[in-house]
Specification:
This protein has 285 residues and is mainly alpha-helical. The chain has 7 helices and 4 strands. The chain has a two-stranded antiparallel ribbon. The chain has a two-stranded antiparallel ribbon with strand order 3-4. The longest helix has 55 residues.
């Protein structure tokens, strides 16, 4: 190479290498300081796209767990109210049994019947008053088919990342538990015959109530299993997202040291290259 003073090609080469090494060093510092291998689309365009989709799915699954837990809370609210209704039905059965014997007069049965009707009214009140977050659980609104446009119909519990009925949600129907729905609003215990016929009616009501509670219990167990499954999905997706996104600190630290050495070397060589034209000046005297 000729000794010239107008152009310093060695300096340009050293400067270019310094720029590259310093850029790589900055990238390594960014990865180590953030803990992420992919900080921008330029780092890994395909990896960034996959990572962001995984992050969205993880967030959706975590919300799905909360949704399922809220549904369990709603079920427990309804089951607690049905437990109180059960007590009322037991008392109504006791009153019907009392009024069905011949040792009471019809006047006395009228008194017994007044308590029976009060119990029936209380069952209806409990059923209409039981709600979770403003959604009535036992008044019959949830016994209809799912609508999705109004606050009536089966409760759809959504826990998946899409909208597939086979994977992402299921509908929760709850039959009404008012006195009318259970069939205990019509019996009249003011006569011995009416009281005796009420016994079978109350048995049917108790069976209907138990059926509601059994369905709620089965749904709660199903939701618990669903929560476990969704949590496992979330954990596995988080692990996959970590493998794409997170930096391997040991590997990156090795790269950092390598680029640091190259940068220091490039700085030294640039300093030496910048002094080369001075050699030509010495020849000029």
């Amino acid at each position: 190479m000729s000794l010239v003073i107008n152009h310093n090609l060695s300096s340009a080469t050293a400067s270019r290498n310094l720029t590259q090494s310093y850029g790589a060093l900055n990238k390594s510092v960014g990865r180590l300081s953030s803990g992420l291998r992919v900080n921008s689309a330029a780092d890994d365009a395909a990896g960034l796209a996959v990572r962001e989709m995984m992050r969205a799915d993880v967030a959706a699954l975590n919300q799905g767990v909360r949704n399922a837990n809220d549904a369990i809370s709603a079920i427990q609210t309804a089951d607690g109210a049905l437990g109180v209704i059960d007590e009322k039905l037991v008392r109504m059965k006791e009153l019907a049994e009392q009024a069905s014997t011949g040792t009471y007069t019809n006047e006395q049965r009228v008194i017994i019947n007044s308590e029976y009707q009060a119990m029936a009214s209380e069952i209806t009140r409990i059923a209409n008053a039981t709600d979770f977050n403003g959604i009535h659980m036992l008044n019959g609104n949830l016994s209809k088919a799912y609508d999705g446009t109004k606050d009536e119909g089966a409760m759809r519990v959504h826990f998946g990342t899409k909208d597939d009925a086979a994977e992402d949600y299921y509908d929760m129907k709850v039959n009404g538990a008012t006195a009318k729905a259970l069939g205990v609003d019509s019996p009249d215990l003011s006569t011995q015959k009416g009281a005796a016929s009420a016994l079978d009616t109350i048995d049917t009501a108790i069976a209907s109530k138990d059926n509601i509670r059994a369905n709620l219990g089965a749904l709660q167990n199903r939701l618990s299993a669903t929560i476990s499954n969704v949590q496992i999905q979330s954990e596995n997706l988080s692990a996959a997202e970590s493998r794409i996104s997170d930096v391997d600190v040991a590997t990156e630290m090795t790269e950092f040291v390598r680029q640091q050495i190259k940068t220091n070397a490039a700085v030294s060589m640039l300093s030496q290259a910048n002094s080369l034209p001075q050699m030509a000046q010495k020849l000029l005297g």
